[in-house]
């Protein structure tokens, strides 16, 4: 099974600590490149986040974004009695000094710095829930990349099979091209007023026959098709292997085109190159 490097996933988790949302985006990249945008309470998790992504993804540029909403948290009001006593003593001193000074209301006293203490959220619970939610998002990301990879595999198999068809068409056409070329050569020799050197004619025919011989290129194309199908069956990242295979496919197609002495053979060579380019574009996005 092959896996695409393109994918998106989103997961959410809620608790007494608030609500967290993860968004993962991945695109093709030569290596694994992870970038994380995290709220302050989760920055300490960045090494663990990178480790989790590396365990799930081997190649690609992965953007990890976390959003934390704690506005819905209902916190108990905890009053600092020492701070409140100090404030009461200070207010008493002011009233004794300034006779007509009015006492502040209770709400203003609660808002005075240090009087009210808000309980801190459970950081350990938040971080544990965040990592669990991230694992869910990573699993969804892998599923999406797997599904896209399956579609890409079907496309590669189809294009490779078409290359094989064109290669066999070249093999079948080649004897006809040789006969046409030999007939044309004999016709030209018949038009010559002087007798041609038989040894030189034979040498020229051998030379041209060697130039037109593409049996080796056709065999190598079929060999590359077999290697492609075998790679697609592997349960491991094969993107770099396929990238190398595309270079080999292209080399044989170029040689096939350069040896072509016939319009039909040239057309097949062009079609093969078109199919290879379509495959190469997809391979660039395979993990």
For the secondary structure, the number of strands is: 6
- Taking Cα atoms only, what radius of gyration do you get, to the nearest Å? 37 Å
Lateral strand order in the biggest sheet: 1-2-4-3
pLDDT < 50 runs, ≥5 residues: none
Distance between the termini: 11 Å
| Strand coverage percent | 5-15%
Number of domains: 3
What's the tally of helices? 8
Structural class: alpha+beta
- As a percent range, the share of helical residues equals 55-70%
Q: What string, H for helix and E for strand, traces the elements in order?
A: EEEHEEHHEHHHHH
- Average pLDDT across residues? 84
Cα shape: rod-shaped
Largest sheet: 4 strands, mixed
Which key phrases capture this entry?
single chain, 287 residues, alpha+beta, Ribosomal Protein S5, domain 2, 4-stranded mixed beta sheet, two-stranded antiparallel sheet, 14% strand, rod-shaped
Structure description:
The protein has 287 residues and is of the alpha+beta class. The chain has three domains: 7-72 and 122-145, Ribosomal Protein S5, domain 2 (2-Layer Sandwich); 77-118; 147-283, no CATH class. Helix content is 61%, strand content 14%. It has eight helices and six strands, in the order E-E-E-H-E-E-H-H-E-H-H-H-H-H. Strand 3, helix 1 and strand 4 form a beta-alpha-beta unit. Helix 4 runs antiparallel to helix 8 and helix 6 runs antiparallel to helix 7 (239-258). The radius of gyration is 37 Å and the shape is rod-shaped. The chain starts with 6 loop residues before the first strand and ends with a helix. The model has no long low-confidence stretch (mean pLDDT 84).
């Amino acid at each position: 099974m092959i896996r695409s490097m393109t994918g998106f996933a989103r997961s959410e988790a809620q608790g007494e600590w608030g609500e967290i949302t993860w968004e993962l985006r991945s695109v093709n990249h030569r290596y694994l490149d992870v970038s994380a945008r995290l709220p302050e309470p989760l920055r300490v998790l960045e090494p663990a986040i990178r480790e989790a992504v590396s365990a799930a993804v081997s190649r690609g540029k992965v953007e990890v974004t976390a959003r934390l909403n704690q506005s819905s948290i209902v916190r108990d009001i905890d009053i600092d009695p020492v701070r409140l006593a100090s404030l009461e003593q200070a207010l008493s001193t002011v009233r004794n000094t300034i006779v007509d000074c009015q006492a502040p209301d209770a709400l203003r006293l609660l808002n005075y710095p240090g009087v009210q203490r808000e309980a801190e959220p459970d950081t350990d619970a938040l971080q544990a829930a965040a990592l669990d939610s991230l694992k869910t998002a990573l699993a969804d990301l892998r599923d999406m990349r797997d599904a896209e990879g399956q579609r890409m595999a079907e496309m590669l198999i189809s294009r490779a099979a078409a290359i094989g068809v064109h290669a066999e068409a070249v093999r079948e056409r080649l004897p006809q091209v040789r006969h046409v070329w030999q007939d044309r050569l004999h016709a030209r020799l018949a038009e010559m007023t002087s007798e041609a050197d038989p040894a030189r004619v034979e040498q020229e025919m051998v030379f041209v026959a060697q130039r037109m011989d593409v049996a080796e290129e056709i065999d190598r194309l079929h060999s590359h098709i077999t290697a492609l199908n075998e790679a697609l069956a592997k349960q491991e990242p094969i993107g770099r292997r396929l990238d190398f295979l595309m270079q080999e496919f292209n080399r044989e197609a170029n040689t096939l085109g350069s040896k072509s002495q016939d319009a039909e053979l040239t057309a097949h060579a062009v079609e093969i190159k078109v199919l290879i380019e379509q495959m190469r574009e997809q391979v660039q996005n395979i993990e």
